[in-house]
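Worked example 3. Consider a protein that binds adenosine-5'-triphosphate.
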Amino acid sequence: MPPEERGGALSEAVEPAAGYDGPRLAASGSVRVRVPAKINLHLGVGPRRPDGFHELTTVYQAISLYDELTADRADRLELVVEGEGADVLPTDENNLAVRAAVLLADHLGVPPRVRLHLRKQIPLAGGLAGGSADAAAALVACDALWDGGLDRNELATLAADLGSDVPFLVPGGTALGTGRGEVLSPVLAVGTWHWVVAVADGGLSTPTVYAKLDALRDAGTVPAEGVGAPDELLAALRQHDPRVLAAALANDMQAAALALRPTLARTLDAGLAEGALAALVSGSGPSCLFLAADADHAASVAARLTTHGVCRTVRTAHGPVPGARTTP
Ligand code: ATP
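Given these inputs, the predicted complex is written out as structure tokens:
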């Protein structure tokens, strides 16, 4: 097996669950799902709740950076990963795609027999929710493979057990997330937005960034009230003027990500110097996002940003795009 492709069987052949009354597999033997990355156009972080999660007010957008998951019939549960992070990602039940398949199988009362093949392009631990995306993809793929017949709301409800960002990656598009991010409301967003994504070397752990934000707030280094409600951002999304949107983008996690990775300031400055309309850290970082006026502008900002040597790689993307979907 090449080093960039790892995986294997997670279990011996699994016996059907008690009460399972026969195969519920789809006629076709293979299902392919494409799932996008997410960005946060507004990420307001409230106080830490008694359950350890922070209260969030966020506006998600799904963008055109994709992972692809293929689910095939098998006599056991196995996962193979190739692409971004394949050398470090777990292929056992610590992988969110596997956890999603097991959760869905339990819910449907079917044995978790599936071979998952994950082709990752979404950078790992980059603040782009790649792991959550793979979980959403696995729910959609396995539901089709096992003929579960769950609708998108049922899948999103299951998704909330897997992580705060997973429910959004089922419908995708643009949405308001509250609670810990899993309570979704639709958002009216006009047109398409163009982004440049600067992918950093190495990831940042989301819990570490939250802990840093708490520490900065406790020390009074950053204001505890944060960026507040996303009213300005929601109004900007209805206008489709990139300059208006640029002024409304906001991320409470940015100060903590910059404190942990000060070199990100150089990345943000470089994008602005090359003409981006706005620059911000993506989610908990360390990926950085730049808003462009249109697709050509995004391509030229990306090309020039590449020459600064301030990140591992630069990609362009547009949003909103749909969430996890089967593809031919
Ligand atoms: P978020 O913005 O939701 O915090 P992120 O983009 O910062 O996410 P992920 O790429 O989702 O981070 O990865 C976070 C961690 O989750 C990884 O370090 C990895 O150990 C774990 N993980 C489990 N399954 C996956 C998966 N399929 N893809 C990526 N990471 C996974």
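Take a moment to read the result before moving on. The first strand starts at residue 5 and ends at 9. The pocket of adenosine-5'-triphosphate is lined by residues 89, 95-97, 124-132, 134, 165, 203, 206, 283-284 (CB under 6 Å).
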